[in-house]
Known about the structure:
- Two copies of one chain form a homodimer.
- By secondary structure, the first copy, chain A, is of the alpha/beta class.
- Chain A has helices spanning 11-24, 37-44, 48-60, 90-106, 125-138, 153-167, 182-193, 208-216, 233-243, 264-276, 332-345, 351-361, 364-388, 414-423, 453-468; strands at 64-67, 71-74, 111-112, 176-179, 199-204, 220-225, 247-250, 280-285, 309-314, 326-329, 394-395, 403-407, 426-427, 429-430, 443-447.
- Chain A folds into three domains: 8-74, Winged helix-like DNA-binding domain superfamily/Winged helix DNA-binding domain (Arc Repressor Mutant, subunit A), CATH 1.10.10.10; 90-121 and 366-468, Alpha-Beta Complex (Aspartate Aminotransferase, domain 1); 124-362, Aspartate Aminotransferase, domain 2.
- In chain A, the strands form four sheets. A seven-stranded mixed β-sheet of chain A has the order 4-10-9-8-7-5-6, sandwiched between helices. In chain A, strands 11-12-15-14 form a four-stranded antiparallel β-sheet, covered by helices on one side.
- In chain A, helix 4 (90-106) packs antiparallel against helix 8 (208-216), helix 5 (125-138) crosses helix 12 (351-361) and helix 13 (364-388) runs parallel beside helix 15 (453-468).
- Chain A starts with 10 loop residues before the first helix and ends with a helix.
Amino acid sequence: MGKLYKDKAHLFHEVYDYVVNRIGSKEWKEHDKLPSVRQLAEELQVNRLTVLKAYQLLKKHNKVYVKDKVGYYVQTPLPSLVDLDNLNNPIVTAYVQKNALSEIHQAKVKYNFSQALIDPSLLPNQYFSNYVKQVFDDYPKLLSTYSSVKGDEELRESLAAYFEKEYKTYVHGDNVMILSGSQQGIQLVAQTFIKPRDTVIIERPCFSAAIDIFESKGAKIVPIDITPTGYDLECLEHIMKQHKPRLFYLTPTFNNPTGYTVPTFQRKELVALAEKYRCLLVEDDAYHDIYFSEKPPTPVFTYDTVGTVIYLRSFSKYISPGLRMSIIICHHSIMEPLVSARFLMDNGSPLLNQKIFLRYFHSDRLQQHLDKLRIALQIRKEWMEGELANTTWQWHSPNGGLNLWVKLSDEISTDSLLSKALAHYISFVPGQVFDPSKQYKSWIRLSYSFSNEKLIKEGMEKIIQLNQE
Amino acid sequence: MGKLYKDKAHLFHEVYDYVVNRIGSKEWKEHDKLPSVRQLAEELQVNRLTVLKAYQLLKKHNKVYVKDKVGYYVQTPLPSLVDLDNLNNPIVTAYVQKNALSEIHQAKVKYNFSQALIDPSLLPNQYFSNYVKQVFDDYPKLLSTYSSVKGDEELRESLAAYFEKEYKTYVHGDNVMILSGSQQGIQLVAQTFIKPRDTVIIERPCFSAAIDIFESKGAKIVPIDITPTGYDLECLEHIMKQHKPRLFYLTPTFNNPTGYTVPTFQRKELVALAEKYRCLLVEDDAYHDIYFSEKPPTPVFTYDTVGTVIYLRSFSKYISPGLRMSIIICHHSIMEPLVSARFLMDNGSPLLNQKIFLRYFHSDRLQQHLDKLRIALQIRKEWMEGELANTTWQWHSPNGGLNLWVKLSDEISTDSLLSKALAHYISFVPGQVFDPSKQYKSWIRLSYSFSNEKLIKEGMEKIIQLNQE
């Protein structure tokens, strides 16, 4: 029996669930007789009254029926009002895809190389907790106030000023919208600008949720390869010419999963190409601040003057993922419908999270935290690469981000390696997840951000050994 | 000049904006010559270098061009990449609609009867601020943790237990999803279950954002009138039979804007009808806890046994709007695609807000706060009704909610009354906003929740007088 309900009085729900699960799994089929109250009470070691109460609720819910005054029988299930197979909705397809990845994430593992998340022990939890009280002192009516749809004005202006200072490019607070996570930004853009059968260019490989989002709007996906030296721009121009894409979703800085970065000269050309073919560039800059030896090139959006680039930037990922803090920067003509879509989507982010972030964003502690975090992540990366050096596997050492993109030998099946790995409490993500055409069968993504050095060393040794078995 | 930038170094951006606004408003047209640097510097009382810097940035951004080496001229505007008129996207239509309402909300008024929000001074701000620190002590890694897509398990289970206790109906934590506001729930449902040209039944009158959301998915809207005694169920059955609607979006408890409540016997029949015609019922229960003399009827979803009802319930509205806390309760077959859509939408609500709410939800203080709040709101309602009693206007005194739905004399134009009211710093919402067919021309919604008794008395006296002028 589960341990959901500590309260004895709720035991009968566990009995209820027990029966429902058996009916659901077809272990007990339509018109089968249920065990008698006495039998089930003994089997589950609960009071008979508990079982009786559960049976009565099952009857009320039309899951079972009564015959011969005493016997309980499995009811013919009523057809569900929502027939998933006939829903004809791309969301359902996305759901299946998502399940593949979330199954990996949900597996109980000791060596977690599948989550591109930062180890909570590297984050300033204690400091932040103390900080929050101060935020409430500064904004006593914080919890009773709605944010505007676009986000807190103070925060938007302060972020605009940050971008101006950092990149010497003019950004106004009105061109900034606060998001509850970058994924929301991708969703907003897709919802606003993508109609069924529009073409969307994505990088190959690409962050899987982005593919799901564009596919869920009925977009036709056309991939362009991303390599350690960027894109083949001739090929990109050819795609733009031929397919007239509505937008190109790109992660040119420490691409997920590869860690590759598009060089500065290509960034300028990208903007020119996009303007020429009237293709929006949706630049997702999730890992910008996680660099190692040197700062990455400035974002593509800084080369834009006419409103071609929609810029998404994450902040909370490497400070406090629990805050869900990202932003979108774009031209007024694009912002207007996005704000409208956001209004209908969730009416804006909670003000609390915005003000907490604002306070921290302005503190010296942020810079100190980032400096330390970069070093910690670089060391973890180097430990992982140290182990990989003992193999014939190939990878391009990234200058930032959270992942290594590793090519195994062609004959290795990453699926069977994953099964073996999971059985040994190790997780990673097979390459196909990042490609709608399911290539990259001999590639895997290894995240070095979630496990510490010791676990990285042990886990990598095990994977390498499993691969040789 | 605005007061955006306190920093002198940013003055040039104000100059920049000044020019952009004049070009945008066509005050300065294409190929017009801009004022000389000297002229504008004098006009705006800023340094000439500041103007020069702004002009240079305008040039860089292709807003102006230089001729004869010294003159600056307005550039032919480049076509925007996003042509709203040709976007052919229902979101844009919704935007126009939304603007009508948000213009009213944004007007600077002293007597605010347009916002169906609770006066922040009635909310437990100070208490909550102290509370939050405790939450961090209980969950030290709160800010470094993602919530699951569906929401925090502890919170979901505790809400399920609450519903079981309150309504004696079986709800499992798995049937609960945490939302960042109810509007997100409507959006999720619409996005998952509505295809273009599907029929959606709404109440007339109805919460305007809900209409916008369903229309933005291309739904065909069919209204059913809601009256102080509920719906005409024969008429509803006729609609269901004829239009085969995908869903019926209803707010049967203290409907917004009317405050009307659908009686218990109709609730049971509604579920039967919906099952018969395989029409989902989306029950939005935003004001359930704001009742006056007696508790409202139990929610429609408690009469559902097969998964016909999707139940939305708001909590934060009358505790801490800044938290954005609502939930959706539904059958497993409906929850599955909703979770998938939510994953793509924003990947779940921030954990921080959920844990803060959880702590408060379990405290005795919540009940005490609600008891006090109900009395305070009832008093405000009675003050407003006291003033209305001096007129020939008609309304049905509601037993809960935040609004009075008032019928003025037929000859009154609510639009012109609104213009006059706004000029006297009074706001309300004209009835047409709540009806896609723009009926209710002589009705208005007056919210008594945002202004205190004194302001209600003064403001109502003024409106009544304006109406007689």
